[in-house]
Amino acid sequence: MKMLKSALLAVALMSAAGAAQAQLPLPMAASPEEVGLSSAQLKKLETVTKAHIDEGLVPGAVMLVARRGKVAWVSTQGKRDPAAADAMKQDSIFRIYSMTKPIVSIALMQMVEEGRLQISDPVAKYLPELAQMKVGTEVTGADGTPVLHLADPTRQMTVQDLLRHTSGLTYGSRGAGLINKAYADQKIGDRSLTVAEMVQNLGKVPLKFNPGDRWEYSVAVDVQGRLIEVLDGGKRKLSEIVKERVLDPLGMKDTGFQVPADKLARAAQPGPRPGGAPMTPRFKVDDGAKYESGGGGMLSTIEDYLRFTAALANGGAFQGKRIIGKQTLAFMTADHTLNRPGRPAGLGFGLGFEVRTRVGDSAIEGSVGEYGWAGNAGTLFWIDPKEQLIAIYMVQVSDPDRVALRNQFRTMVQAAIVD
Hints:
Blueprint (H helix, E strand, L loop, with lengths): L1 H17 L20 H17 L4 E8 L2 E9 L15 E4 L2 H14 L21 E6 L5 E6 L7 H6 L13 H8 L9 H8 L17 H12 L6 H13 L47 E3 L1 H12 L3 E2 L2 E2 L3 H7 L14 E3 L4 E3 L14 E4 L5 E5 L4 E6 L4 H17 L4
Antiparallel strand pairs: 1-2, 1-13, 3-6, 4-5, 7-8, 9-10, 10-11, 11-12, 12-13
Helix pairs in contact: 2-11, 3-7, 3-8
């Protein structure tokens, strides 16, 4: 009887998702068990997610796990928009925020493969507006108030520093010090500016530390976006370049920096948290902003992001289209932070991806060598080469909830691996 219930559960999981899966770019497994995953555990994940939706923590979710080259499980739950009546769908378009970073980093590393630059090059070689940046250290002034002491950096910021977040840059919103204030004063990240204007302003802001000294999450990938524009010739926007280099070859037709009018009804939206508190403000998906953030400005669907992750899991190519060389990808997904401070225990950072370096220390389960990243609205992906697994989590939630929700998704997916 227990075996019969297990088989029926697997069939129910697949049947519920089957109609929605027709457009997924990988073949569907007959059941999660076919690829060594537990239907019962994945059902628990669905149940937990439904409870979060019922509680108002998340309006809706699209979740997917692929293993051994097949989609093992996909679940679509809740509402696309709390203010609308329509349900979440598999083709719903999500703000992926920092899951933009790996896409843009791939585009930059394509240019390295083409011989246009080396990652050891100083950033100022291509963006001279950043050549005179000083390192700012807060000290107490004569009147007892904090002031910035400025000094020349011990070495120049390199392209590698941008890719692995050891540049000396930061996010202005992550703190309340004088350097953070300088970011706000210079409108760093303001969507009314172009990225070229942002980089010009950034050159007037102090570095937070000497390049290479430590890891700190930052606007570095926005700077990468401008670097890509300059290396391309300076006449095209980042969106056009990334479309040509990554999105079009992989068939990522619903991914970009804006949602066109004919797709607006598919845009997933956040809603109020329990008790009526508003979720973290999000940019409008069709605001026509000039600022194309290479670090956090793209929108995508689970189908499109599966195309991207499938290419990475396959060594840089998918459906006959190669977006990056196998050896380049291996280099990108190695840890480039080593013993620098700033990273959580057991987790390093490569060129555009977080990389797991140890199974222990970290509070999150996983395999050594897995890599991925997350987004500010709660989205998450990772690729585990050892387990031949891809997992993608698409939601639009608030800052207080996003980390807990995606960590729960990660640990429950790990628990589904049984073979």
